[in-house]
Amino acid sequence: MAQRQLMTGNEAMAEAAIRAGCRAYFGYPITPQNEILEYMASHLPQAGGAFVQAESEVAAINMCYGAAAAGVRTMTSSSSPGISLKLEGISYLAGADLPCVILNVARGGPGLGNIAPAQGDYFQATKGGGHGDYRLIVLAPSTVQEAAELATLAFDLSDEYRVPALLLADGMLGQMLEPVALPTPRDPGSLPPKPWALTGAAGRGPNYVASFALDPLDLRDLNLKRHARYREIEARELRWEEVSTSDADLLIVAYGTMGRIAKTVVRQARREGIRLGLFRPITVWPFPYAPLGELAERVKAVLTVELSAGQMWEDVRLAVEGRCPTPFYGEMGGVVPTPSDILREVKRCA
Amino acid sequence: MPKGKAVVDAERCKGCGLCVTACPFGVLELSATYNSSGYPVAAMAHPEKCTGCALCAQTCPDVAIEVYREKAASGSAAGGST
Amino acid sequence: MPETQTLTKVFARPRSLTDKRFTYCPGCHHGLITRILGSAIDKLGIQEKTVIVAPVGCAVFAYEWFRCDGVQAAHGRAAAVATGIKRARPDLTVVSYQGDGDLAAIGTAETIHAANRGEAITVIFVNNQIYGMTGGQMAPTTLDGQRATSCPEGRDPATMGHPLRVAELIATLAAPLYVTRQSLHDAKHIAQATQAVEKALRYQVEKRGYSLVEIVANCPTGWKMPPQKANEHIAGTVTKVFPLGDLVDRG
Questions:
Q1: Which of A58, A62, A64, A92 to mutate to test the interface with C (most CBs of C within 10 A)?
Q2: Is residue B41 over pLDDT 70?
Q3: pLDDT < 50: residue spans in chain A
Q4: Are strands A283-285 and A137-139 parallel, antiparallel or unpaired?
Q5: What pLDDT does residue B74 have?
Q6: Which of A74, A311, C196, C249 is the most exposed, having the fewest neighbouring CB atoms within 10 Å of its CB?
Q7: Element (H, E) at C125
Q8: Does A have 3 or more CB contacts under 8 Å with C?
Q9: Mutating which of C23, C63, C69, C204 best tests the A interface, going by the most A Cβ atoms within 10 A?
């Protein structure tokens, strides 16, 4: 690990992407993620990569589709309303089995909403979002360090499984300045080859990249193969963090920025003699249903805390399967609860 | 005039008739033969008039025609691969 | 074929085309444009470094007609997809093949901005004044008064606007190297269009600039005309609205 340096979450994700071998970035300005676009504009060309400020979010994701088809590690970044626009392209990426990394530095919604931190895009990120039966690998960082590490992981997983990967962050994490030890830069030439990519049909038959299969039997088979890969990801790539769960009789489930705040709540609760633990999903798709379900056997309640009206809450309830009560506390519109707000909700469960 | 020959791939032909109009010498006609897709197939009704100019092939939207010309003739048709 | 033994083949299927039969209707110019593009790829010897970007529309299978790498793009996004490929691998020759609904309606922004950035791609724009694949609806290029299934009384410019002249629009930009409008309604125009496509590809290979070849094409099925009558309609009527020739040549 390199020396630690102070970076915002946005900068750290951008730099980590370049170090992971990203050599094609396409984006469009939207707050609170503009620093990613700007960082790429000044740093990616120096690394020999292609940077285009696209005419729209739609164009940007389709440029990613082209670069991904050409076998180059590619990324776009945006914030909630921009991700909505990208969903068409994301569905095509998924349908064409193309690797791509998408950063969502989420903000308050729906509609134009505001630029404050929110987690209202969970359904969009984890349940498909665009049209058709597809999934994204969705990683939810809670610190700047983790944002850099998960940006790297997103490229690796996306390439390995040929499934687009999305980093679900929010405006707080994007703007936050923290020390970060950046991953070691990798030479794109050292990455595993992509024999399916569009590189020119020299010495081989043509490679075709498409999400199109007119015959229902063909399209079904393509979907079945893709879903087999989804099952593989579910079996192999679950990631989560547990804090003070070994003796906990109450559990908070929170991800991203809320997961970070919940760690403070656990410390405060413990000081007051409440045996509170935290379960923080890092992969929100695939969601760690089984490990959360096992913890639910041993606690009195599982409290979900989100910056939404209760989106991950549905997955929590699927994981808990009625083993204990599953209360919810959420704030919306960019309102971020303080640790004491959450502790109050914890005490209601105790 | 050099002598030529247009060879129509009957299964590719869709009977659109554009080659019939394109031929300056009235060589081609839509025949009474239908291919497996049900299209009437273009054929050389007057092969003796063919010069091998390849205008039929250049006009064909389904790349169903190959054209041959007597070796004495020089040059090749523009637009096609030779 | 013994009788051809003394004869030399002077016209054959381009080597860069696959053996697949086109899915187009009888007489449709899409097939002809495919052949012209294949001939140009052969002539320049670039089959092994060309990528075909296929649109949504009648040409949705365009990537399967070529022995070149190919990709199918979302509706209207072909120019953005082509941009991504070209920026990622500048050594490739990238051809974006698009119809009028794709390029001039849903993909207008992608079209104009790829041209304005001077992306080193070749755009083949098939202007047949109708949405063929979806059954003959009005296109941005449909002529004033022309009937289509979504303007059954004919296009009324008062509420539907006039046909969009894409080549003229792109020609206002500073970056494009070559902007031309061609037609395929007779052998002479086919020969000219062939040269235009070759030039556009050559400019990409040699000068790394943007070209747009707009091709006024027929849609016998959508226009409800036999193929030859459709060609006559192009010669007599369509080319009055969409004049032919080079608009920009900075090569």
A1: A62
A2: yes
A3: none
A4: antiparallel
A5: 46
A6: C249
A7: strand C122-127
A8: yes
A9: C69
Please tell me the distance from the alpha carbon of residue A263 to that of residue A146, in angstroms, as a whole number: 15
CATH number for C15-249: choose from 3.40.50.970, 3.40.1110.10, 3.20.20.70, 3.50.50.60: 3.40.50.970
Residues in a beta bridge with A169: A105
CB contact under 8 A, B66 and C21: no
Query: CA of A24: how far to CAs of A14, A71, A79, C151, C251, in Å?
Result: 12, 10, 19, 43, 28
pLDDT of residue A68: 99
**What ipTM does the predicted assembly reach?**
0.96
CATH of A240-349, one of 3.40.1010.10, 3.10.105.10, 3.40.50.920, 3.90.550.10: 3.40.50.920
Predicted pLDDT at A128: 86
d(CA A28, CA C51): 26
In a domain, B18, yes or no: yes
Nearest to A65 by CA among C80, C120, C59: C80
Tell me the nearest-neighbour CA distance from C20 into chain B, angstroms: 9
Reported as a pLDDT band with limits 50, 70 and 90, residue B76 is: very low
Helices and strands (H, E) in chain B, number of each type: 2, 4
Subunits next to A (3 or more Cβ pairs <8 Å) are C
Among the partner-chain residues C66, C68, C83, the one whose CB lies closest to the CB of A66 is: C83
Chain B residues lying within 8 Å of C126, measured CB to CB: none
Tokens of A209: 């990249």
Per-residue pLDDT, B81 = 44
Question: What is the per-residue pLDDT for C207?
Answer: 80
d(CA C140, CA A135): 35
Which alpha helices (H) appear in C89-176, and where do they start and end?
100-101, 108-117, 157-160, 166-171
Contact C87 A63 (CB under 8 A): yes
Domain ranges of chain C: 15-249
Tokens 């979504």: give the residue.
Answer: C150
Return all residues near C102 (Cβ < 8 A) that are at least 6 apart: C55, C56, C57, C75, C76, C78
Q: Does any domain span residue B29?
A: yes
> With contacts defined as CB-CB under 8 Å, which chain C residues touch A222?
none
Is pLDDT of B2 > 70? no
Give yes or no for a contact between A173 and A256, defined as CB atoms under 8 angstroms apart. yes
Q: From the CA of C247, how many Å to the nearest CA of chain A?
A: 25
Fold of A4-184+192-199+223-236: Rossmann fold (3.40.50)
d(CA C88, CA A68) in angstroms, rounded, equals 8
Q: Using CA atoms, how far apart are residues A90 and A291, in angstroms rounded to an integer?
A: 29
Evaluate whether C223 touches C230 at the Cβ level (below 8 Å): yes
CA distance C194 to A325: 72
Which residues, including other chains, have CB under 8 Å from residue A234's CB and lie 6 or more apart? Answer: A286
Residues of chain C with pLDDT under 70: 1-5
Tell me the residue range of the domain where B35 lies: 4-69
Q: Does B28 touch chain C (CB under 8 A)?
A: no
Nearest to C39 among B21, B70, B80 (CB): B80
The pLDDT value recorded for residue A3 is 86
pLDDT of residue A122: 98
Min distance A24 CA to chain C CA atoms (Å)? 6
What is the torsion angle, in degrees rounded to the nearest 10, for the CA atoms of residue A257, residue A263, residue A268 and residue A273?
140
